[in-house]
Design a protein that fits this description.
The complex is a heterotetramer of chains A (about 190), B (about 650), C (about 350) and D (about 110).
Chain A lengths: L2 H4 L8 H27 L9 H4 L2 H26 L3 H31 L8 H33 L9 H24 L4
Helix pairs in contact in A: 2-6, 2-7, 4-5, 4-7, 5-6, 6-7
Chain C lengths: L1 H25 L16 H34 L18 H30 L6 E8 L2 E6 L4 E4 L1 E5 L4 E7 L6 E3 L8 E3 L5 E5 L5 E6 L12 E7 L1 H12 L11 H11 L32 E2 L4 E2 L2 H9 L1 H4 L17 H12 L3
Parallel strand pairs in C: 1-5, 4-10
Antiparallel strand pairs in C: 1-2, 2-3, 5-8, 6-7, 9-10, 11-12
Helix pairs in contact in C: 2-3, 5-8, 6-8
Chain D lengths: L7 H11 L4 H23 L6 H22 L7 H24 L8
Helix pairs in contact in D: 2-3
The chains are: A mainly alpha (about 190), B mainly alpha (about 650), C alpha+beta (about 350), D mainly alpha (about 110).
Chain lengths: ~190, ~650, ~350, ~110
């Protein structure tokens, strides 16, 4: 039958990675909206403190670096998973989750200092948009940490061999996405505003 | 998830085709979910219609006193919200769910449980918003929820609206991701993108529009929600907030939304016209590209909803011109539809009547749309009844006529019995007359200076006559809907059996039995052309005349011999509905903080239970359906098991076959 | 016989439909249309009208062509008795045609674009030596401040014929979005908290021009009407002079008006309503119209009611019953629980504010 | 064919790019990213290096980091066209839309 002729190469698309990328594309729009809201309100401090007074670039640089490195540990975990190296996989997963938690700790510290210095959710449009943006990013990081922890548990319970679906891959994609969003936030929201 | 190892001949869900209530609630079968979407949408359609009748009765005479201003504002807000988010979108999802997988030769969508979650979230959101009726009044900030009006925190009503829309947004987003994945990865062998039925194409475009536009309004919704509840200042002009930002965020979503509503109907019509003209769709690729172009341009014209907001002449010019360009691909579609009928052997059963009605009525809406792109003229038409007339010609004359065309076209395939033709024709003519009687006068009213969303109007403004006519018309429409409901119930009971291929159809769904077996295809079809089924039935001689081939290309499931087909299907799951329940519980709790914290905790508990249950249903794939809420980040992982068995399909290797 | 009749009717169906339509349209007896955007009474409104008519002509042509094509096709190629399987040529498309009907509309639209852009910029220009009025939208009434003349009034705008009037549109920060629309004088323009919009209107003829708020602004959106009275320049100056005169405050005494004036202060009316040159400074968190020359107006409450004795009485008795408002949310006139005597006195007073 | 045929292609694809990059590569990329970040921070402290120059260079450096992570850590470079299309389409779309919005507010160029 002439199917071979009329039938091009079968779809090489992995179903769940395709879904993940579609979802991440949609998330780009979400953070795009939050970031541009911040850019619109960046100078509207309503008498409250503004970015110049508040932002502590050295501190934020460190936490940015932490998140950046968590991407490294994540990709190493993914690499270990592809090599079916369960031990390495767990190691790097734990490392990634820990770095994520360090970042969250840093964000918590930053928020509390800002609040202490007089920038609250209801201080100014600047404050509102800053907290909404960084808050939603933080929420994404937290969700990522949860997923990573889940992966570790699974890994101990049943193992995460290649045959067992592609969860490491999906979590990795999600985690890196959270990282690239922070790359943008760090540049546009922090560095460009001081 | 049933493991792949020992596969029952036919999975539990498959065992009972109809099944009891539980079978429906836990179903992950795209066809069952599609039917549920359809029925729920029709119910909301009736509700929204009743709201519309109240509106028309109030406006039938000047200084109407049937309802109070307060009630009126609730009525038109919910009429818009219901029709857009709870009728047209879900019923398009109903057709998409039921037919896209079959049309592309798949056995289900990529993520069946995620699909069920989308549906139950839609139900939750719809019930959530509507329940405000018993809890302090329906939302009353208009369906566009303009801030700062919607951010005025006195009444709880707009919280229902904001949270409800957020939930519906998540539902649609998950659905969109699901459909993108399904169409990209699960097409049958040989079903290249350019052999897909136009309906599947339009659903793909819609899925992308949803994926890219919903997050934008979600941002705005969160801002309003926080303004109302946590004292943020996004829309508080007193402290430097800017109400116009909401209009941008809303219309960045809201305009693509218009195409989200109309493109599925265009897809349906593009299937119906060829079938009943016994000719292929004229300019298949152009119709597809035009659809994609409409979707793409749809993102560039949002500000034409803001021509009176004071954007300044430069922006107004830019968006005016962008808006004009949309008329071009729209025209292409209309011309191609006429070209499809041209030279055909045209029969006029009800689906065809509605399809032609669509083309005719939508053309009117398109033309009045052009007058909106003429910015100065729009400053007169904006927020007047002229606009109301325009978008009803697009969304009623367009979307709704297209939808009913689909209902009459596919009813037999879905329920095994055809809708009655005589009653159907009565339905069509009543609706066509009632529709024009209602909305054509609104053009005049708007140009005569009647603003929309007014609960009363003074006598002596010259609006009395046409308002009365419109009210009469609206009841003719109501009558036509009644006729339809009677027809549907009657035909479902004792309509004439449809058979596999009642219309001598062109696309894969007609190769299956009516209703299709729950595994859709006993043998995954191998596709060689656009309108593959037609070309398996008919050849073409040298002067392009169709020649009946003596083949029987029906799927074995449609044939009499009921053989055992070893098809593994995803087993039912009650975790999707549980997760939806948890999310909506959290939403209810949110409304009555701090007391609500207890409720929210309960909801979170349910959510966790659902998520872990979901995950552990298939130990291979933990943390299923993670965080459905929030920005709508539900990176779900449905087991690959039921999908990996799908025979992979060709990916867009260019030129459509068949030509 | 009966069958014959029905078949005759069936054949005549289009004719009957046409007749029905004709009757429908004709019986739209020419009521007068004070808010008709198609009856422009100003240069800018005329520009818009011309543009709209041009578009409509083109649209009508396209409409006739497309609908004609649909109907013609449906009739000419309809399936007749017994040709269920009449084979028809399987045409898949025609690239030339596609290109044609892609380019043709594009050209038409390009043609339309030129005058459109011109008009956009023309209507946006700030006119020279215009009368300047600052319009403030409130839930649910309009406030006008003649910046050069120092006049403040509400709902009823008075303008000289033939002179451009440059409106500065604004709303209080705590208010919502409204839209100023007098169809015969110009298109509408939104009134947005935190934004300053502008709009130029003018009237080529004397007379009364009606309008109303066109952006949904909450409970009483429908009752936020306005009117523009165009005078000959001389009459306008007379009106302005009248507005600038001192408020007519009754002298001490036991006249009802005097009693009303005391109530006006004691009942707290003066907290929201201004009466120029008196202790009634108004403003406040829930500002009401300036009443300095209330008796010079024809209407009140968002140009909703005629300024008649009984209207005013029932208004003072229970405002929210006459016009939906939310005084408890500082939107609109509260019910002060006045006795009949008090009402009589207050009405006497405000009716005296000529 | 029967319905329960496994999908061999998918597996192959995974193998295909599994060993595109070694851990060593990843460390290298991470080092590169760290350096870029350091440069970003550093230039904000150079006194007479500001204004448009600073803004542009910061945006460029940020974009470099962004794309590096996407291409290599997320392997998008090695994924089929469809995934690249979806992501970059969304990315460009987001950029275009929000530049337009900020322009409409005349708030784009004073954003930095």
């Amino acid at each position: 039958m002439a199917i071979e002729a009329s039938q091009p190469a079968a779809s090489t698309l992995d179903i769940r990675k395709t879904a993940m990328w579609a979802f991440l594309a949609s998330e780009l729009m979400f953070f795009g909206g939050l970031i541009s809201t911040f850019l619109l309100y960046r100078a509207r401090t309503n008498g409250g403190p503004g970015s110049e007074e508040l932002f502590d670039i050295p501190f934020t640089s460190v936490s940015s670096f932490v998140l950046l490195m968590s991407s490294l540990t994540m990709v190493l975990a993914h690499n270990a998973w592809e090599r079916n190296d369960e031990r390495q996989l767990r190691l790097w997963l734990v490392a990634t989750a820990s770095l994520g938690m360090v970042f969250l700790g840093g964000q918590f510290f930053e928020f509390s200092t800002f609040v202490h210095e007089g920038l609250k959710l209801d201080t100014s449009p600047f404050g509102s948009s800053f907290y909404l943006l960084t808050g939603f990013h933080g929420a994404h990081v937290a969700v990522g940490v949860l997923m990573l922890s889940a992966m570790v548990i699974i890994s101990y319970r049943v193992g995460l061999t290649k045959a067992r679906g592609m969860n490491v891959e999906l979590v990795a994609l999600y985690w890196h996405f959270v990282d690239i969003i922070w790359i943008v936030i760090f540049t546009v929201v922090y560095l460009l505003q001081v | 998830m049933a493991t792949i190892v020992e596969t029952p001949p036919v999975s539990p869900a498959a065992a009972e085709p109809k099944g009891g209530l539980w079978a429906w609630v836990t179903s992950v079968d795209h066809k069952k979910i599609g039917i549920m979407y359809g029925i729920a949408a029709i119910v909301f359609f009736v509700i929204g219609g009743i709201e519309a009748l109240f509106i028309r009765l109030q406006l039938a005479v000047p200084d109407g006193t049937l309802v109070s201003e307060d009630a009126f504002n609730q009525l038109f807000t919910m009429h818009g919200t219901t029709m857009v988010f709870l009728f047209v979108m879900p019923i398009a999802a109903a057709f998409g769910n039921y037919f896209v997988p079959i049309m592309i030769g798949a056995r289900d969508v990529a993520f069946p449980r995620l699909n069920a979650l989308s549906f139950w979230l839609f139900i939750s959101g719809g019930v959530f918003i509507s329940s405000s009726f018993f809890l302090g009044g329906l939302p009353d900030g208009a369906w566009v929820g303009y801030s700062p009006l919607s951010a005025q925190p006195e009444v709880i009503r707009m919280d229902f609206w904001v949270l409800g829309l957020a939930i519906l947004g998540v539902a649609s987003l998950l659905g969109a991701v699901n459909f993108i994945t399904t169409i990209f990865t699960m097409r049958a062998p040989g079903m290249t993108l350019f052999r897909m039925p136009v309906f599947a194409w339009m659903q793909l475009v819609v899925a992308f529009l949803l994926a890219f536009s919903l997050p934008l309004v979600t941002v705005g919704l969160f801002q309003v929600l926080f303004d109302r509840n946590f004292g943020t200042l996004f829309y508080d002009a007193a402290s430097g907030g800017d109400p116009i930002l909401w209009q941008h965020l809303f219309w960045l979503f809201g305009h693509p939304e218009v195409y989200i509503l109309i493109l599925p109907a265009m897809g349906i019509v593009s299937e119906v016209l060829p079938t009943f003209s016994r000719k292929p769709l004229f300019g298949y690729q152009f119709v597809v590209f035009a659809g994609a172009a409409i979707g793409f341009l749809g993102f560039g014209v949002w500000a034409h909803h803001m021509f009176t907001a004071g954007l300044g002449p430069v922006a107004e010019t830019a968006f005016g011109l962008m808006t004009m360009t949309i008329a071009v691909p729209t025209g292409i579609k209309i011309f191609n539809w006429v070209g499809t009928m041209w030279g055909g052997n045209i029969s006029f059963p009800t689906p065809m009547l509605f399809a032609i009605g669509f083309v005719a009525m939508f053309t009117i809406g398109g033309l009045s749309g052009v007058t909106h792109s003429i910015v100065p003229a729009d400053t007169q038409q904006h927020d007047s009844y002229y606009v109301v007339a325009h978008f009803h010609y697009v969304l009623f004359g367009g979307a709704v006529f297209g939808i009913f065309s689909g209902v009459y076209y596919w009813f037999g395939k879905v329920f095994g019995r055809q809708l009655n033709e005589r009653i159907g024709k009565l339905h069509f003519w009543l609706m066509l007359i009632g529709f024009n009687l209602t909305f054509a006068p609104m053009h005049i009213l708007g140009l005569n200076g009647m603003p929309r969303r007014i609960a009363t109007y003074g006598d002596g403004l010259g609006w009395n006559y046409w308002n009365f006519v419109a009210t009469v018309g609206s009841f003719v429409i109501a009558l036509s809907i009644l006729v339809f409901l009677i027809n549907a119930i009657r035909s479902y009971r004792k309509g004439e059996p449809a058979g596999a291929d009642p219309w001598d159809g062109r696309t894969l769904e007609w190769t299956t039995s009516s209703p299709p077996a729950n595994y859709n295809f006993a043998e995954v079809p191998i596709v060689e052309a656009v309108d593959d089924f037609w070309y398996k039935k008919y050849g073409e001689d040298e002067d392009h005349m169709p020649v009946r081939l003596d083949t029987n290309p029906l799927d074995p499931s449609a044939l009499d011999d009921d053989g055992e087909f070893h098809v593994h299907l995803p087993s039912p799951s009650y975790f999707p509905i549980l997760l939806a329940l948890g999310i909506v519980t959290v939403a209810y709790g949110f409304l009555w903080i701090p007391v609500g914290f207890a409720v929210m905790a309960l909801g979170l508990g349910i959510m966790l239970w659902a998520i872990f249950g979901w995950a552990l249903e298939d130990i291979d794939h933990p943390m299923g359906g993670d965080d459905g809420q929030g920005g709508g980040h539900g990176d779900d992982d449905d087991p690959g098991s039921e999908v990996s068995e799908q025979v992979p399909a060709g990916i867009g290797a260019g030129s459509g076959g068949g030509e | 016989m009966k069958a014959g009749l029905t078949s005759k009717l069936r054949r005549r169906r289009p004719v009957l439909a046409g007749l029905a339509l004709l009757v429908l349209v004709l019986s739209a007896c020419s009521e007068d249309l004070p808010q008709n955007s198609l009856a422009p009474a100003s240069e800018r409104a005329q520009n818009i009208q011309d543009l709209f008519v041009l578009t409509m002509i083109i649209a009508t042509v396209v409409f006739v062509l497309v609908q004609g094509a649909i109907i013609y096709t449906a009739i000419k190629f309809r399936r007749k008795k017994g040709e269920e399987d009449r084979p028809v040529k399987q045409i898949h498309g025609n690239t030339k045609l596609e290109i044609a009907w892609t380019i043709a509309p594009a050209l038409i639209l390009a043609g339309l674009a030129v005058p459109t852009v011109q008009t956009i910029f023309e209507n946006a220009e700030k006119p020279a030596n215009a009368l300047e009025i600052t319009v403030t939208g409130h839930q649910w009434w309009w406030e006008y401040e003649y910046t050069d003349l120092g006049i403040v009034t509400a709902n009823e705008m008075h303008i000289p014929v033939g002179q451009d009037v440059f409106l500065t549109l604004q709303a209080d920060d705590t208010d919502v979005i409204h839209s100023f629309w007098v169809p015969r004088l110009s298109g509408k323009r939104d009134v947005v908290p935190g934004h300053i919009n502008t709009l130029t209107i003018s009237a080529d003829e004397t007379g009364l021009f009606l309008g109303q708020c066109a952006e949904f602004c909450g409970l009483s959106h429908a009752n936020m009407r306005l009117r523009v009275q165009a005078h000959e320049p001389a009459d306008f100056d007379a009106w302005a002079a009248g507005q600038l005169a001192a408020a007519n405050i009754p002298a001490e005494g036991d006249s009802q008006a005097a009693e009303g004036w005391e109530l006006f202060i004691s009942k707290g009316c003066s907290a929201c309503h201004t009466v120029n040159g008196t202790e009634a400074v108004g403003g406040g968190i829930n500002p009401g119209p300036d009443l300095t020359h209330f008796a010079q107006r024809d209407t009140f409450a968002g140009a909703l009611f005629d300024r008649t004795e009984e209207n005013l009485r029932s208004w003072l008795a229970n405002p929210s019953e006459m016009k939906a408002m939310e005084p408890d949310l500082n939107r609109g006139m509260p019910n002060l629980g006045l006795s009949d005597e008090e009402i009589t006195a207050l009405v006497a007073f405000i009716q005296g504010l000529s | 064919m029967t319905a329960t045929t496994e999908n061999p292609e998918t597996e192959e694809v995974q193998e295909e790019y599994a060993d595109h990059l070694s851990p060593a590569n990843y460390w290298g990329i991470a080092l590169f990213l760290a350096v870029v970040t350091a440069v970003e921070v550093a230039i904000t402290y150079i006194p007479d290096f500001d204004g448009t120059v600073l803004v542009v260079s910061l945006l460029v450096l940020g974009a470099v980091k962004f794309l590096t992570v996407v291409a290599f850590f997320m392997h998008l470079k090695y994924e089929p066209f469809t995934m690249n299309f979806m992501f970059y389409f969304g990315l460009l779309g987001a950029l275009a839309l929000f530049i337009a919005v900020l322009l409409a507010f005349e708030a784009l160029f004073d954003s930095f």
